[in-house]
């Protein structure tokens, strides 16, 4: 991949945010707004979810939908984010893209777990079983294991850079599962219902149920953005702390010794 | 990888024969190595037969039940046997440094990966294919199922080797490489398992197994087209 070393020159706009200092300032400025918008959307969405009419067949248990469906969307959205960030990291060696991919994967795993658990709780009263080996359920379970693999391989190497690149390649390979999840209910006619919101023509869901659902989805997305920024910020600060500690140890150990080429994140 | 094309041309004229020659030499080398250490390849088959033998002890010997689960048992145990053999796909070459020489050679790394995967399939997939009818016989699979089972395994086991090569390449040099490979590879093996078993089941139910076999062929072609590049990318960052 040495041919790509010259690429960063041409993509200035993308690399404006590669500076950790600038990123931290930007994150600090946007985070309070993100948290406020997230809290507002979740509050409105929750009120809407509890005041929305009950389903004529499912009764009040339909309200699980307002958590289950946004969690499922976010589970797939997060994996897509990781795949895009990994591609950016591999092609342009963008340092923050790497950071974003690794910071996003535990969040995505949590969304996937939330989706599986709420789906299971919803399945018991509706289908009469906690779990069926249905195409969509199985492929979401596979997604969960892909997240776990991504997290495991990123931390499996002594050389952190290798773990990052291995995780990026794995994220791209695992991306084949996302379209399989999306279309599994159309390809295999199984127990899980097909898409009722994002289909051609009008959504097959009444507007009184649709708006709380979309508000909840917005709230989940804002939460994802905010928590991602917090996690990236933490990781950057942790790096800076490690560099400072290494520098101080070095200074104490052998005064006047040449620096051993630590990355220059600490100065920014 | 764009960088390798000019190198191939510079290394000795026509790139076409060079590629095929390089591919053939790597396959021959790996086969010779496997022949000298016959135990490795036999171990996978032995594991396959042994784990398949466990099921009748675990769930009972009722002929109807065994007959019904035969395709599933053959596929699951074959998949685990392939998984067991993945670690040695690149590990020895990585440890003794020959992988670095391969990465430096004028033959593009994806072609070398494809050659090593071919050799891996010839030493693991093919023996499993030969042993599968024996297991199926012991489980009392009806005669109609054998042809489809073998056809599905002939299409499916190369896919397993190809996907596994990506996992093996990614975990080279990792602290818990052997434990990591199943976590990375098994989720991606599931489609092969689903279609492999449902092809035999369809045949047994009197339906056509053609759609499943076509899908497995499509999966194999996609894996041939994509997996060598992903594995080569992983190998390159392992040796750099």
Question: What pattern of helices and strands is seen along the backbone of chain B?
Answer: HHHHHHHHHH
What is the beta-strand fraction of chain B? under 5%
Class by alpha and beta content of chain A: mainly alpha
How many structural domains can be distinguished in the coordinates of chain A? 1
Unreliable spans of chain A are 1-11, 256-268
Question: Count the strands of chain A?
Answer: 0
Domain module count of chain B? 1
Helix amount of chain B, in percent? over 70%
Q: Explain this structure to me?
A:
The complex is a heterodimer of chains A (268) and B (240). Chain A is mainly alpha-helical. Chain A has one domain. Chain A has eight helices and no strands. In chain A, α3 packs across α8 and α4 packs antiparallel against α5 (135-154). Chain A is globular, with a radius of gyration of 22 Å. Chain B is an all-alpha fold. Helix content of chain B is 85%, strand content 0%. Chain B has helices spanning 4-12, 15-36, 38-59, 63-85, 91-96, 98-104, 109-138, 144-170, 177-204, 210-239. Chain B has one domain (30-239). Mean pLDDT of chain B is 86; it is low at 1-13. In chain B, α3 packs antiparallel against α4 and α3 (38-59) packs across α7 (109-138). The A-B interface holds A 1-3, 90, 138, 142, 145-146, 148-149, 152-153, 156-158, 162, 165-166, 169-170, 172-174, 176-177, 180 and B 1-3, 166, 170-171, 173-177, 180, 183-184, 186-188, 190-191, 230, 233-234, 236-238. Chain B: Keywords: Cell inner membrane, Cell membrane, Cytochrome c-type biogenesis, Membrane, Transmembrane, Transmembrane helix, Transport. Chain B: This is Heme exporter protein B. Chain B: Pfam families: CcmB. Chain B: It is a multi-pass membrane protein. Chain B: Belongs to the CcmB/CycW/HelB family.
Task: Summarize the SSE layout with pairings.
The complex is a heterodimer of chains A (268) and B (240).
Chain A: H1 12-15, H2 20-51, H3 65-92, H4 95-127, H5 135-154, H6 160-174, H7 177-187, H8 207-253
Helix pairs in contact in A: 2-8, 3-4, 3-6, 3-8, 4-5, 4-8, 5-6, 5-7
Chain B: H1 4-12, H2 15-36, H3 38-59, H4 63-85, H5 91-96, H6 98-104, H7 109-138, H8 144-170, H9 177-204, H10 210-239
Helix pairs in contact in B: 2-7, 3-4, 3-7, 4-7, 4-8, 4-9, 7-8, 7-10, 8-9, 8-10, 9-10
Membrane topology (chain B): Multi-pass membrane protein
Transmembrane segments (chain B): 41-59, 65-86, 98-115, 121-141, 148-173, 179-201, 213-235
Protein name (chain B): Heme exporter protein B
